[in-house]
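I am hoping you can look over what I have pasted underneath with an eye to the fold:
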Amino acid sequence: MTNYPPFRLGERKHVMIGDLALAYLDDEAWHLEPVILVHGFTDSANTWDLLVPWLAEHRRIIRLDLRGHGGSMRPDSGYDLDSLAGDLIRFTAALGIGQADYVGHSLGSLVVARLAALAPERVRAMVLISSTASVDDSATMRVLHDSIAGLRDPIDPESEFLRGWCNSPTPVDVGFVARERQMAAQMPARLWQTILREALDLGDLDRNFAQVTAPSLLLWGDADAIFDQPHRDSLIRAMPHGKVRIYAGLGHNPFWEQPQRVAADILDHLQ
C-alpha cells in the first residue's frame, strides 16, 4: 500500500486574484503543453494524485484549489459557477496562460463548462468527469441535501456520512481514501452548505452547455451514486457533439479506481 502523507497545505504555491489567495500545484514542466485539473466539491488539488503520474510525461500539470477548498481562501460567498469560472480566468491569466486544456470532475466539470461558455477562446479542449446538465428531485439528491444541511463542526472524517461520501464500488488505496476524508472534514460545515446552495444551483445548465464549442470528452462510471444515468443522459442531450465513455462498474471517482485507463482516454482526447 502507498503511504499517503497527511494533507499539507504548505506544499502549495499561492497567487493573488484581487483580494483572494488561490492555492495550486504546478509541476512546472515548461516544455509541455499545460492541462488544468479542476477538482470536485470538498476535494482539492490532491484529489488527482493517483491520476497525475499517468499524465505527467505528456503534459504540464497544473492543479488548482477552488476557492473555499484546500489551501485557497474561504470567503463567505462567491461560490456560484460564474464566480468560480471567473477565478479560473484570472488564475490562468496570472500564470501567463492563455488557451489551455481542462479536465474537471463533478463540481469542477461544471466550472470548466461555464468557463468554456464564458470564454471559449481560453479552452482548447476539455474533459468532463462525472458531470450533469440537470439535477432531478431524486431520493438520492434529497438525502444528500439533507445530510449536508445537518452537518455540524467538527466533522468526523470517520463518520458514516464521510465514508459514504468518499466511497468507491471498486477498491482504492485505503491510505489515499482516508486522506481524502480528512481533507473533506477540514472544510467547515458552513462551507459545505454554502457551496451546495450557491455552486450547485443547476437550473440553467442546459443553456450553459449549449454554448460550449470546445471539443469535449464526457466520462462516467456507470455505478456513480451521485450522478447516475438520468444525469448522464441530460448532459449527452445538452452536448450531442461530445464524445462519451462510460466505465462499467466504476463510481463517481473513476480516476481513483482506474487512473491509468482514465489517463489514457484523457490523453487520447487532448492529443
